[in-house]
Design a protein that fits this description.
The chain is an alpha+beta fold and about 250 residues long. About 50% of the residues lie in helices and about 10% in strands. The protein has a 4-stranded mixed β-sheet with strand order 1-4-2-3. The longest helix is centred in the C-terminal third of the chain and has 57 residues, at about 150-205. It is elongated and about 140 Å long. It comes from Bacteroides mediterraneensis. InterPro entries: ParB/Sulfiredoxin_sf, ParB_N. Pfam families: ParB_N. This is ParB N-terminal domain-containing protein.
Length: about 250
């Protein structure tokens, strides 16, 4: 005996036979699409694709699933390249009913709500990412997404003990590199200081001269003759001249 509440039939159609609803108001975030793709790759498509035959095989529910399947199968919606087969729930209703059903299939108001206590108890028994939950979801329901079983904790502790020597060695190498870098920085500062001092000394030495000027060559010659210098000299050592002055005095 047919049940009047089951108004669809499960059939297989080619992807090229069906089309998205142009009015579909549903969107999906990048993170949501990533989670859906993970779920499909992990579990496959378990129901959820509804197509209306009466309006030219329009997708009523399951647009995001079909979109992910297109990506996985590398389907080209324009050329129909890489066409593939998918199982859908086929209905035959007018356009008004189709649009109402599109909203109803995706309306959270008629989709039930989470019992967060019950959900939190399930988390340790599942892979929360395969179930489409995020760290934010788990925080909201008060469940530590880093929760480990006793066995996992034991393995983690064993691994930590095994890695301890490696960790210590890495820390020692890190400290040695930091020390080496500090020594290089100190050396560079010392070199810069030496260069600065040498430059200052050179600048001072460049100023260590005194020029004598005479009005005539005869006056210069008389000066040189007095102190025993060649009248054609261009340079007289200051320290030597100083000793001569002391002797004359």
């Amino acid at each position: 005996m047919d049940n009047k509440y089951f108004n669809s039939k499960s059939v297989e159609l080619r992807r090229s036979q069906i089309k998205p609803a142009s009015y579909n108001p549903r969107t999906i975030s990048d993170e949501g699409r990533k989670q859906l793709k993970r779920s499909i790759k992990r579990y496959g498509v378990v129901g959820g694709i509804v197509v209306n035959q009466a309006t030219g095989y329009t997708i009523v529910g399951g647009h995001q699933k079909v979109s992910v399947l297109d990506e996985l199968n590398k389907y080209n919606e324009v050329t129909h390249e890489n066409d593939y087969t998918l199982r859908v729930e086929l209905i035959n209703v007018d356009e008004k009913t189709e649009k109402s059903l599109n909203i109803a299939l995706n309306n959270p108001n008629i989709g039930g709500q989470w019992d967060y206590d019950a959900l939190a108890r399930l988390v340790p028994d599942i892979d929360y990412q395969d179930a489409g939950l995020t760290a934010a979801d788990l925080n909201m329901i008060g469940c530590d997404f880093l929760l480990q079983t006793e066995e996992e904790s034991s393995i983690a502790d064993a691994l930590e003990d095994m890695m301890a020597p490696v960790t210590e060695q890495k820390e020692a190498e890190k400290a040695a590199k930091q020390m080496e870098r500090a020594e290089k920085v100190a050396h560079m500062k010392e070199v810069k200081l030496q260069v600065k001092n040498a430059a200052q000394k050179q600048a001072q030495d460049m100023d260590a001269y005194l020029m004598l000027s005479f009005d005539t060559f005869e006056a210069k010659a008389a000066f040189c003759e007095r102190f025993g210098y060649d009248p054609y000299s261009k340079f007289i050592k200051g320290e030597v001249f100083d000793e001569q002055i002391e002797r004359i005095e």
